[in-house]
Design goal:
The complex is a heterodimer of chains A (about 375) and B (about 170). Chain A has about 375 residues and is of the alpha+beta class. Chain A is built from nine helices and eleven strands. Chain B has a single domain, classed as P-loop containing nucleotide triphosphate hydrolases (Rossmann fold), CATH 3.40.50. Classes of the chains: A alpha+beta (about 375), B alpha/beta (about 170).
């Protein structure tokens, strides 16, 4: 096929063909496509030569790269990104350039993209509109969570009044039936108070991501002391269910196991995990809180001797609002709170079935 | 005539193309129309006694699909970092792009334009954010491509600084 036919084919593809000579100047080959005839200087076709970067500003960026390509070319081609220039009539031209070597000729092709550009643009447009919608939804959700926090906070106010009133009533001379009703009322108030505490603690953990660790090592909590304190506070509940609790500290750990974290929230993590273990423990069972050193971290485990967590729910356990079948009255935020707190402190958390039966929750925190 | 290349860089949908359209053509389109390559426009401005042709390179916005091709800044006399006041993350993106731009082309004059000033009541970017950035010695402007507020002055003041830095 003759070079004339090739040039005609490229012309029909809206491609401007330029040949670069040894002096680095360009001259058009073949016919000039309509889209660029108004851009080229009048004396260029067919024998005239010119600097294309004077017409297409983008080529100031591309031609140095193309020059290196032509100097080293061992085959293939070098393609530019898409660029947009406006012609003297105010029409936007979507263009792309290709540098290649044909025979010994250094060729620069400049192509006007039409449908191809429209299709690509449409894909990006849709993708970015979806991203913007997603960003807006996230921002809206965040505002609603703050509103929810305010509502929950307001709900907590009257609750202390109810609890106080019931406490005063308890001190009165009541019939057995009335005393039972007062006790029921107090129990319901305590349960609601716990739910509100869970919700507020989770909200604080989610929104306080940047200031969760006190950098002063003197304020680092001792994880073993936290665990013991929590276990002690739960002793009455352990006694009622006839379950024992124990803390095991393996060798290799310092006397005080100081960890990255915040005392109040660490205690809440222990509270959630130990209470969870207690809930699933059989009568006469044992809940063990263990501490083992792992390099510069401590691995903390909370084990029970219950039936063991079903493997299929493990991946969702630490998600928000996930509740097992035996969790009526719970917020579904306890384990979620544990995860976001531990992760904010640079640690990790997980859960597994124990081969000997029961469940093992574990989390890893950096030693200070 | 003096010719200077100025690049506009920033996250996607912050209004880079709209700022150029406002500056070059005094136009504004309400509908978001994404750019997928480099859009090049020119405008002649008069600064003092000099006439300067500004060659404006509006680079595709940064997002999950595309990173800004920082090599396109090569040969720039200055650049405009653009953020969207209603989207705080775009300010962080602008700060990151500034670091990349400096690594690529060294210290040249630049401005941070926080766009969409017409939507000021819904801004996530706060005065404190901008004060902190200005404390680094950055020139910061609040622009609105929609109303044209501070658009012309942003381009002209950058051009002045470029000419002084020559």
């Amino acid at each position: 096929m003759s070079s004339g036919i090739f040039a005609e084919l490229l012309f029909r593809q809206n491609i401007l063909i330029l040949e670069r000579d040894s002096r680095g100047v360009f001259r058009p080959l073949g016919r000039t496509p309509d889209w660029c005839s108004a851009l080229l200087p009048p004396d260029t076709a067919p024998a005239g030569s010119f600097a294309p970067e004077a017409i297409f500003s983008f080529l100031e960026y591309f031609l140095p790269e193309a020059g290196r390509f032509w100097a080293d070319a061992t085959g293939g081609e070098l393609r530019s990104g898409i660029w947009v220039e406006t012609n003297p009539d105010g029409i936007e031209l979507h263009l792309a350039a290709t540098a290649c070597v044909v025979g010994r000729k250094k060729i620069l092709l400049i192509r006007r993209l039409e449908q191809e550009f429209d299709q690509l643009q449409s894909v990006y447009q849709k993708g970015r509109e979806l991203l913007l919608t997603h960003e807006r939804l996230v921002a809206e959700t965040s505002k609603k969570e703050i509103l929810l926090h305010c509502i929950i906070h307001d709900l907590a106010g009257p609750l202390s009044g109810i609890t106080g009133t019931l406490q005063v009533l308890e001190g009165e001379e009541l019939t057995a039936q009335a005393a039972r009703l007062v006790e029921l009322g107090r129990r319901a108030a305590r349960q609601q108070s716990r739910l509100i505490d869970d919700l507020l603690a989770t909200f604080r953990a989610e929104t306080g991501a940047l200031d969760t660790i006190d950098p002063d090592p003197a304020h680092a909590p001792d994880a073993v002391t936290c665990a013991r304190d929590v276990l002690d506070s739960l002793l009455p509940a352990f006694a009622i269910r006839e379950v024992s609790g124990r803390v095991d500290v393996a060798r290799g750990l310092p006397e005080r196991v100081l960890v990255s974290g915040e005392k109040g929230r660490l205690e809440r993590i222990f509270h959630n995990l130990i209470q969870n273990a207690l809930r699933y423990s059989p009568a006469k069972g044992l809940v063990t809180v263990g501490f083992q050193r792992e390099d510069t971290a401590v691995r903390i485990t909370v084990e029970d001797q219950g039936e063991g967590v079903p493997p299929e729910i493990v991946p969702q356990l630490f998600q928000k609002f996930v509740r097992g079948g035996n969790n009526r009255g719970k917020s579904g935020l306890g384990l979620y709170f544990c995860r976001i707190s531990v992760e904010q402190w640079g640690g990790s958390i997980g859960c597994e079935r124990r081969p000997e039966g029961g469940t093992r929750f574990w989390f890893r925190l950096n030693l200070v | 005539m003096i010719q200077k290349k100025i690049c506009l860089i920033g996250a996607f949908a912050v209004g880079k193309t709209s700022l150029v359209q406002r500056f070059v053509k005094s136009m504004f389109a309400e509908k978001y129309h994404t750019n997928i390559g480099v859009k090049i426009d020119k405008k002649i401005v008069t600064v003092g006694e000099s006439e300067v042709t500004l060659v404006l390179w509006d680079l595709v916005g940064q997002d999950e699909f595309k990173a800004v091709e920082i090599g396109y800044l090569r040969g720039s006399a200055g650049y405009l970092l653009v953020a969207d006041g209603t989207r705080r993350a775009t300010l962080e993106c602008a700060v990151d792009l500034h670091t990349r731009a400096q690594d690529a082309i060294g210290r040249v004059p630049f401005r941070l334009l926080v766009n969409k000033a017409d939507l000021a009541p819904t801004w996530e970017v706060t005065d404190e954010d901008l004060i902190k950035i200005a404390e680094r010695g950055w020139a910061v402007g609040r622009t609105s491509a929609k109303t044209g507020d501070h658009v012309e002055s942003a381009f002209v003041s950058l051009t002045q600084e470029i000419l002084q830095a020559k």
